[in-house]
Amino acid sequence: MAKRSDKIMIRVSSINKSFGKNQVLHDIDLTVYEGEVVVIIGPSGSGKSTLLRCINFLEISERGQIYFEEELIVHKENAINKMRQSVGMVFQHFYLFPHMTVLENIIEGPIQVKRIKKQEVVVFAEELLDKVGLLDKKDFYPAMLSGGQKQRVAIARALAMRPKVIMFDEPTSALDPELVGDVLNVMKQLARDGMTMVVVTHEMGFAREVADRVIFMDEGKIVEEGNPESFFLNPENPRVKDFLGCII
Amino acid sequence: MSYDFSIIFEKFPIFIPAAIETLKIAAAAILVGVVFGLIIAFGRLSKIKVIYYISTFYVTIIRGTPIILQLFIVYFGLANIVRLDPYPSAIIAFGAHNAAYIAEIFRGSILSIDKGQMEAARSVGMSNFLAMRRVILPQAFKRAVPNLGNQFIIAIKDSSLASTIAVRELLLKSQQLGSSNFRFMEYLVLAGIYYLIITGVLSFFVNKLERRLAVNER
Predict the structure, then answer these.
(1) Are B98 and B33 in contact (CB under 8 A)?
(2) Is the N or the C terminus of chain A less surrounded, counting Cβ atoms within 10 Å?
(3) What is the spatial distance between Cα A204 and Cα A247, in angstroms, rounded to a whole number?
């Protein structure tokens, strides 16, 4: 298990977010330390994904601040783009670029955004593909891959930017059950390697095994948080008990 | 006087210069249409209100009025300000006309790309411009091909309207030859054959391109 450092990677300070009249986040505070794996669980519509999306400005939160490595991220294109280079994102529906091969998907960011030389990026991309077990698929187009393979490519694409944090937004929710394991294994390996991760998921097994901290959200609020042992064995909040009761 | 379609074969070669005129006008109109169409499409997608309204106004005006009226406005209507020759008048009018339609084709194909593609591109730190150029537009162009091909075929046929302002293209040629010996039908059919050849060749290549681009589709 990755050990927790004192360095703060992400700090979310009392953010709110509404879609029309529907307020999905209420004064959320969250701090993520370097090397920590934070798993966010909770019922659908509780604001988990919105919280992730607010952190990298795919949604713009109202009030409140986002800090990356203790630096306030202002709502300006340059600041946001720079922060995003260090905060990878893996989506439920992968969103691989369909007009590019697997390898091209992975090298696109480093070459276009970081302006790193192609030869250099390709070597690293092949290492990453090897790590996620898909080196033999490097010249395939996304359409030729299974969902689980696509998601592992998406993880490699995020890693290619050498991010300091990776956020996963329900990475296994769109997968056939038998493909979930391969993706989770890659994520577990990442956690062991010390990557700072924020994971929104319904995979309780993963949360229990890998998380340093589990956060339970409901109706746009963080209802309970703690280490996985106490969280799963002795949840305090009745809402959490209900939820875990339903699942386990 | 009975029809004599044998003159179609006989006179086939003398239509070649007129066919080249038709091709030149249509090609120029398409080129102008694609370049300005893309710009107007971005205007229609712009979050900046003024730009959005101007481009929407433009598309509404062009789509809501006949192409021949647009041609006459450029050639006859503007004559008080600038006297344009028939040839540039046709290219300006048809180019402006096609730009509006092509703008809508591009706009539609850009909007058809999953929002997640933009988000994924932005998530690796790409600027909006870079994400457009590297991720959205290549996919959007691909989806635009069938509709663009269709619009190009329309542009070729619409170029026949230039005959009304004395551009020596296929239709005018057939009218002129027809009135010289009253074999209108034969020469009109001959012009028709030329249009069919041009549009046929174009659709052949559009289909081929479509199939080639479809290879990596899901």
Answers:
(1) yes
(2) C
(3) 8
Is the Cβ pair B121, A97 closer than 8 Å?
yes
φ and ψ at residue A169, rounded to 5 degrees: -105, 95
Over its C-alpha atoms, chain B yields an Rg (Å, rounded) of 21
DSSP symbol at B135 = I
**Strand, coil or helix: B112:** coil
Nearest to B122 among A84, A96, A98 (CB): A84
- pLDDT, one tens digit per residue, over A148-194 is 999 999 999 999 999 999 999 999 999 999 999 999 999 999 999 99
Which strands sit side by side in the sheet containing A37-41, from one edge to the other? A87-90, A165-169, A196-200, A37-41, A213-218, A221-226
pLDDT tens string B54-71: 999 999 999 999 999 999
Whether residues B119 and A95 touch (CB distance < 8 A) is answered with: yes
Alpha helices in A90-176 (DSSP H): 102-112, 118-131, 147-160
In whole angstroms, what is the distance from residue B211 CA to residue A246 CA? 50
Angle between helices A118-131 and A102-112 (to 10 degrees): 130
Query: Which of A83, A95, A111, A144 is most worth mutating to test chain B (most B CB atoms within 10 A of its CB)?
Result: A95
Could you report the predicted ipTM of this complex, rounded to two decimals? Answer: 0.93
Tell me which residue of B172, B37, B169 sits closest to B97, measured CA to CA: B37
Which tokens is B42 given? 């971005």
Q: Do A113 and B117 touch (CB under 8 A)?
A: no
**Which residues in chain A have Cβ-Cβ distances shorter than 8 Å to B216?**
98-99, 141, 143
The answer to whether the Cβ–Cβ distance between B127 and A85 falls below 8 Å is no
* Greatest alpha-carbon span in chain A: 55
Interface contact B124-A109, CB threshold 8 A: yes
Contact residues on chain B for A98, CB-CB shorter than 8 A: 139, 216-218
Q: How far apart are the first and last CA of chain B?
A: 60
Strand pairing category for A65-68 and A71-72: antiparallel
A88: Cβ contacts below 8 Å, ≥ 6 apart = A158, A159, A161, A163, A165, A166, A167, B123, B124
Contact assignment for B119 to A91 by CB distance below 8 Å? yes
Residues of A within 8 A of B142 (CB-CB) are 99
